[in-house]
Amino acid sequence: MPAPLTLDGFRADLAEFLYQQPDEVDLEENPLYAGLDSLRIVTLIERWRETGADVSFIELAECTSFDQWWQLLSARQGGAGHVTA
Description:
Elements: H1 7-18, H2 31-34, H3 38-49, H4 57-61, H5 66-75
């Protein structure tokens, strides 16, 4: 089973796509204003799903800050928010 996503890992993932150092990532920044396009967001979603965080593109697109992304991702660790039919 993959290790769960941590805040440090989340920051490192964002930093990679924003060409920053993890400690330079402003969690209050709007992801779209920060320079993340839809392809990068989808790539991040795939990476985070591998850690057990079950989120969709639409859910992240509705968030207005990286902090809101983190709140959603941390709540969904291990598929906690996944509903099965």
